[in-house]
Design brief:
The complex is a heterodimer of chains A (about 300) and B (about 200). With about 300 residues, chain A is mostly helical. Chain A contains eleven helices and no strands. Chain B has about 200 residues and is of the alpha/beta class. The chains are: A mainly alpha (about 300), B alpha/beta (about 200).
Chain lengths: ~300, ~200
């Protein structure tokens, strides 16, 4: 079954492309050095937007494969950063195999399995595989860090993909790609808005120990911007009432902020600045999906509870 | 040569997609790599993947000239492995055990360089512990002395020993890094040469 894009989705996608073109013009004017971080960042955004547009427009299977690859890259980056035990090599291999399985449950719309596969079955089975290797030194740390990675990079992120297969319900103008686009656009623009407001007005550090660049002004400005955008986009892409749209916007803004902080804390703990260099100007893939690991499951359950 | 096409296909259809998807090698200063032979590429050695990664870093039209130096005892130990290693990959097999002179062991390597090949050489001699540079053997000094004007391109590899360590057959995905250092050549002083090479390989 392929997904047909409602025309509002195409319109909003067009809007995203237009916005990116505008941002590119502004950045080219602001940062004349061809290799400045801002310019690299904008170039990477073109790649991200192009790939996301393709994934959402092509077919459901293509979108699931695309989001599965995102989970794979994020988990791989996470496992590269954290210390792992050589005795757990096979366990890590099984952990990677959980990605196609998790996205397969989504493909066949088996909600019950999708929602417990990682939190229950893998939580129990991967430690069994670790125990069978007989290595007890560092066991809790190995089992705990692996499960944290699977929960964040596979389980949480896969909620974005489950939006694509939510049943149509009674909302004729709403479909999965629309909800996924709403979540993606708001999560990423919230990051950008918090960054911009922080640069413009930032005075008071909100979390100096974890992420010294984040300010109260950036946070508040970001939340207000995202709530406003949610109210504007919701009639096009979602079944939300005005009040629910505002709530969803606030939920995404606050959750995104904490997702970002959570990954910053992880990087502080490991003593690194960027998680990798897959996306020039952004660091690695984790630096891009950090907010999504919080917004995707929370927005999914908000939407599912109230509307599906 | 039909094997050149086979090697090209092997890299294009298997090695490169595998390195791109399952591993993800981040190459820094790729522009420092040689644009033509003869050249000697040296790297630290932790995994069977090392030689494949170094070959895949080269432009495709140089693949047919790339020759990794590898242990004859291991790679010629059975017929199929020998066929694959010498024909498809194009290794230069060298003896790694028994007492022999440098000229006996590394003569074929010098000849390949003299013929214009791009030789890939692991101066530690064998695969060691991941991310710990072992002691460099004297073979690299001998080679450098034999061809004192030839450029040596040091490449520091990181992470491949986690993807596919010694003694295991199952690759597990991790991101890896390869830093291409500034090319160097024989400096006339053994200690200074080894120190410089060691430093650019992360020792």
């Amino acid at each position: 079954m392929s997904i047909t894009l409602a025309s509002p989705v195409l319109a909003i996608l067009g809007g995203v492309w237009a916005l990116l073109a505008l941002a590119t013009a502004v950045v080219w004017w602001l940062a004349p050095a061809p290799d400045s971080e801002l310019r690299q960042r904008v170039r990477s955004w073109w790649l991200i937007v192009a790939l996301c547009s393709l994934a959402l427009m092509f077919s459901r299977a293509a979108a699931l494969v695309f989001f599965g690859v995102i989970s794979f890259l994020a988990l791989k980056e996470y496992l590269t950063l954290i210390p792992t035990r050589q005795t757990d090599r096979r366990v890590l291999f099984w952990a990677y195999l959980s990605i196609p399985m998790q996205y397969f449950w989504i493909g066949i719309e088996w909600y019950g399995m999708f929602i417990i596969f990682i939190p229950v079955y893998l939580f129990l089975l991967l430690p069994v595989a670790m125990v069978l290797t007989g290595e007890t030194q560092g066991y809790l740390r190995a089992a705990g860090t692996l499960h944290w990675g699977l929960m964040s990079m596979v389980f949480s992120l896969s909620h974005l993909a489950y939006l694509l297969v939510l049943p149509q319900g009674e909302y004729a103008h709403v479909n999965g790609p629309g909800l996924a686009l709403f979540l993606l656009v708001l999560t990423e623009l919230n990051d950008v808005a918090q960054y911009c407001w922080g640069k413009l007005l930032g005075r008071h550090k909100i979390s100096p120990a974890v992420s010294p660049n984040k300010t109260v002004e950036g946070f508040v400005g970001g939340v207000l911007t995202t709530v406003l955008l949610a109210a504007l986009l919701a009639p096009w892409l979602t079944p939300f009432s005005v009040l629910d749209a505002l709530l969803a916007g606030a939920l995404i803004a606050v959750a995104g902020f904490f997702g970002d902080l959570s990954l910053s804390a992880l990087k502080r703990d490991l003593g690194i600045k960027d998680s990798g260099n897959l996306l020039p100007g952004h660091g690695g893939i984790l630096d891009r999906v950090d907010s999504l690991t919080y917004t995707a499951p929370l927005f999914f359950h908000f939407t599912r509870y109230f509307y599906f | 040569m039909g094997y050149a096409a086979l090697r090209w296909l092997f890299f294009l259809l298997i090695v490169k997609p595998f390195l791109l998807l399952a591993v993800g090698v981040n190459v820094r200063h790729r522009d420092r790599l040689p644009a033509a032979g003869p050249a000697l590429i040296v790297a630290n050695h932790n995994s069977h993947l090392d030689a494949l990664v170094l070959m895949a870093m080269l432009p495709v039209w140089l693949l047919s000239r790339a020759r990794p130096v590898a242990s004859a005892e291991y790679f010629l130990s059975n017929r199929w492995r020998a066929w694959f290693a010498t024909r498809v990959i194009g290794i230069i097999p060298v003896a790694t055990s028994g007492v022999r002179s440098h000229a006996d062991v590394l003569g074929p390597v010098r000849d390949a360089l003299a013929a214009g090949d791009i030789v890939i050489f692991f101066p530690e001699g064998t695969r060691g512990e991941p991310e710990r540079l072992g002691k460099l053997k004297t073979g690299i000094v001998w080679l450098a002395q034999q061809l004192p004007t030839m450029l040596i391109y040091p490449v520091r590899l990181h992470g491949l020993g986690k993807v596919l360590p010694k003694g295991d057959w199952l690759p597990v995905p991790f991101f890896c890094d390869a830093w291409v250092g500034e090319p160097l050549h024989w400096s006339g002083d053994r200690r200074q040469f080894l120190a410089a090479l060691s430093a650019s390989l992360g020792g």
